[in-house]
Design a protein that fits this description.
The model has no long low-confidence stretch (mean pLDDT 88). The protein is globular. A two-stranded antiparallel ribbon has the order 1-2. The chain is built from 20 helices and two strands. A hairpin with a 2-residue loop joins strand 1 and strand 2. The chain has two domains: 338 residues, no CATH class; 119 residues. It is mostly helical and 487 residues long.
Amino acid sequence: MVTKNRSIISGIDWWTIIMFLVIAIFGWMNIYGSSYNYDQTSIWDFSNRAGKQLVWLITAIVMGGVILMIEEKAYDVLAYVLYGGMMVLLIITPLVARDIKGSYSWINIGPISLQPAEFAKCFTALAIAKYMSQYGYQIKTIKDLIVPLLLIGLPIGIIMFAQRETGSALVFLSFLLVFYRKGMSGYILSWGMASILLFIIVIRFGDIVLPWGIGNWGSLASAISINLIVFGLMLLREKDFWNALIIIGATILCYGIALLINIWITVDFNLVGIISLSISTLYLIVLAIIQRKKSIGWIATFVIISTVLCQGCDYAFHNILQPHQRIRIEVLLGMKDDPHGAGYNVNQSLIAIGSGQATGKGFLQGTQTKLKFVPEQDTDFIFCTVGEEWGFVGSAGLLLLYLALILRIIYIAERQRDTFSRIYAYSVASILLFHVTINIGMVLGLLPVIGIPLPFFSYGGSSLWGFTILLAIMLRLDAARVNKMQG
């Protein structure tokens, strides 16, 4: 046993642990800074948030040490069991949770409250790694993605609709990056980005009426955008200039005829957009059959899915999203100006970050922080504390540290000798990248506020424990790789 423990210690990637500790300790300091006032007790006082976070950090380190002692094969063997158990817990959570700002995602266990969704990411990563590591598995067709998509779709559905926690649910979309690394077509990721673009166009310009005929700029712009994307795919990916020209020419002709008819008869240009997309779809389907090219068939599928998406965007925006989520998106897109409501958090955050200038006001010297202008400033908006007290230098340093950690994890993933460990490590990197990008983006007003924590940094035991477990399992699997090489 002693020899085994020594081999584990020698195989641990200490650079990752050092970066984890630096981020966590810096986060603990900023939690104290964000909650500090002139009557504040010591940073070591366990009655304030900094003291509580220290307890969470110590227990997280102990928990990570225990995970490192567990046989690495256990994570492979128990992957599905842990995933199944977590899904049951996610289903039970809204039945026993109390309403917190419209969300039912927290359960009380004695004196502490935990959010199961934070731990679900880890066990979902294990299940995906287990499934994708089976012998001979490769992503070649859409059928190969059915099970992985179900594995991430189940927690998304439960967390979003039963627990009403949209931010935590969206994190599971980060696994798409893992699927891409495993061989998923780049078309799917492209569709994802195109879907976001089309959603923005439809929502942002959907209420602006056209100066002619019937319709709105949102429907018109989205239809034209889809045809332009098809033109680009045919020209750049398929290298088919003439058919790309035919498609864009047919689109221009369709709208030209509609404008001409509109001189005498009022035309519904929303319908014209659907007709132009239908023509493009039919032409692509025929072309795919004649040339026997699946890639063109995928482009036709993109047009169909995008058309359906655009038609459903308005319904989803007004009937699926919560009122506060709609307002946040409208403020972000410039549709509404609500500096004292939905835009208040972001405005105050930007003021705090900007006031820090190059080197910051100094530790515990942030006026925006002391006067509590920024809500949630020690959880979702803790980065504004860094900007105010440590300035651009401190903020850039933290971002570089996160970048170094993510790149280190990718390096660890690449050096794994078995598929299970490699996919799991890529899952860890993807989850961290998603969290950091979304959290910093919403604090800077570049993305909607969806309420997800900054890894190892924001106040909260569930978040810290969840990320620590995620990282510790990866380190244990990596240590086993070293031991196998030595054996």
